Amino acid sequence: MNIIEKIAKAGVVGAGGAGFPTHIKYDCEAEYLIINGAECEPLLQTDKFLMREFAAEILEAIVMIAENIGAQKIVFATKKKYTKEIACLEKIIAEKNYNNIELFLMDSYYPAGDEQILVYEVTERIVPEGGIPLQVGVVVTNVGTLYNSYRAVKDLPVTDKYVSVLGEVNDPRIIQVPLGTSVKDCIAAAGGSTINDYAVIVGGPMMGTNLVGSEIDQAVITKTDGAIIVVPRNNFVIERNKQSIEHIKNKAKAACIQCSLCTEYCPRYLIGHELEPHRIMRALSYNEDAEVLKEAQICCECGICELYACPMGLSPRLVNVYFKNKIKEKFESSQDQLKAHPMRDYRKIPTARQTARLDLDKYDHQALAETLKVDVKEVKIPLKQHIGAPAVFNLEKGAVVKKGELLAAAKADSLSVNIHASLDAQIVEVNDQYIKLKAKDEVVS
User: Fold this and answer.
1) Per DSSP, what are the bridge partners of residue 219?
2) First CA to last CA across the chain, in angstroms?
3) Which ranges carry the 4Fe-4S ferredoxin-type domain (predicted)?
4) How far is CA 400 from CA 34, 63, 112, 283, 423, in A?
């Protein structure tokens, strides 16, 4: 079984984004392999932890993947300020003579970890609008994905996740949990919340999932979740993202002053893409059939326009999402050649300033306690933890499974991945959304 087959068998997906199946991403040829160690969202610390604790495993995986794709250049991109992590990487690089791995050190700005921005920073190549890095000879992969790929080669499927739990918790820490662990169990493992009326951000505050009330009770950890941030229910980020689309549209029609700051700070616009959010906002008010609305399809949904740039408190990102879902006709670029904006380097947003704008700076650089492996008695494992088609359940309710056993197989001829048991347990519930497992001694006959 080759490396691609082992990664597919293990159910590895992109650990830092939408969860693209990794065996498909790595099954190619590319000039560059770029490793994303930037972890650009404010407050996140999980990738830093992985670079410190598993530098040898990550670098070994890099060598294997680079050989598989025929990469001529290997670039490990991370932030200059990650001095401990850089030292760990440099130590292993020197010991193993990985002299072909170049460290590319970046300033701390948002969104440095966006793969298209990373490609431009490292190579000065611009990924086409609506395209992928492979179109310019590049594969970009996250450190968490590489760690899981290393384990896959050792015949270890993806069953656990390292998660940063921080914010309004008594004992901020990184925890290791089985996939399907409830978010509430994760918060309990970090000492519980310091406040009663709280909300949860799963992932980063700019692009993560916001949960309130019963949503928190239902949420579980999946293959793509790297952080849980507990914040007051009235936090700026939470309030902004809980608006209805009708309220967002009405507010935009009434208050957009066409200052164009949403466009001037847009990372895609700054690398030359034909995306101008202020024109989309104008069309929202005057002509919802305008050709410009197709540009919404190339929005990366980074949130800079709404959570940093707009002086009126509007939500161009959510307007773009609305038109993405509404307009089916594919955007086609009118540009022959893409060229970065001359002011791009001067419009990078310092992460510290972005954190303050989000009213989250009190949690910045929050010290995390010693890593804790969390044992749970029950998990709810979604059949879809990635972009593409859900896995196909292939066992029966009542079956007893061992940790690492295949629960649901990747759907044939689809963008899909295998799902494995994350506990030694019994299957107690099955539907088209998830599989619930309980430790056998917890099952009531």
Assistant:
1) none
2) 41
3) 245-276
4) 41, 38, 44, 56, 10
- 326 and 409 within one domain: no
Instruction: Report the CATH number at residue 169.
Output: 3.10.20.600
Query: In the chain, helix, strand, coil percent, each to 5?
Result: 35, 20, 45
248 and 341 belong to one structural domain:
yes
Calpha distance 126→271 (Å, rounded)? 7
Burial class (CB in 10 A: 0-12, 13-18, 19+), 233: middle
Residuewise pLDDT in 10s, the chain (445 residues): 899 999 999 999 999 777 899 999 999 999 999 999 998 889 999 999 999 999 999 999 999 999 999 999 999 999 999 999 999 999 999 999 999 999 999 999 999 999 999 999 999 999 999 899 999 999 999 999 999 999 999 999 999 999 999 999 999 999 999 999 999 999 999 999 999 999 999 999 999 999 999 999 999 999 999 999 999 999 989 988 888 888 988 998 899 999 999 999 999 999 999 999 999 999 988 877 778 899 999 999 999 999 999 999 999 999 999 999 888 778 887 787 899 999 999 999 999 999 999 999 999 989 999 899 999 999 999 999 988 999 999 888 999 999 999 999 999 888 999 999 999 999 999 999 999 999 977 655 5
Q: What is the C-alpha to C-alpha distance for residues 119 and 126, in angstroms, rounded to an integer?
A: 7
Number of domains present in the structure of the chain: 4
| Burial of 234: CB neighbours in 10 Å, binned 0-12, 13-18, 19+ | exposed
Consecutive H or E run containing 77: strand 73-79
Question: Residue 351 and residue 17: Cα distance in Å, rounded?
Answer: 19
Token reading at 361? 């700076």
In DSSP notation, 11-73 reads T-B-TTSS--BHHHHTSS--SEEEEEE---STT--HHHHHHHHSHHHHHHHHHHHHHHHT-SE
Domain, as residue range, for 193: 159-233+365-376
Given a contact cutoff of 8 angstroms between Cβ atoms, the answer to whether 180 and 382 are in contact is: yes
- Considering the domain architecture, whether residues 213 and 100 belong to the same structural domain is answered as no
Q: What is the pTM of this model?
A: 0.95
- Phi and psi at 394, nearest 5°, equal -130, 20
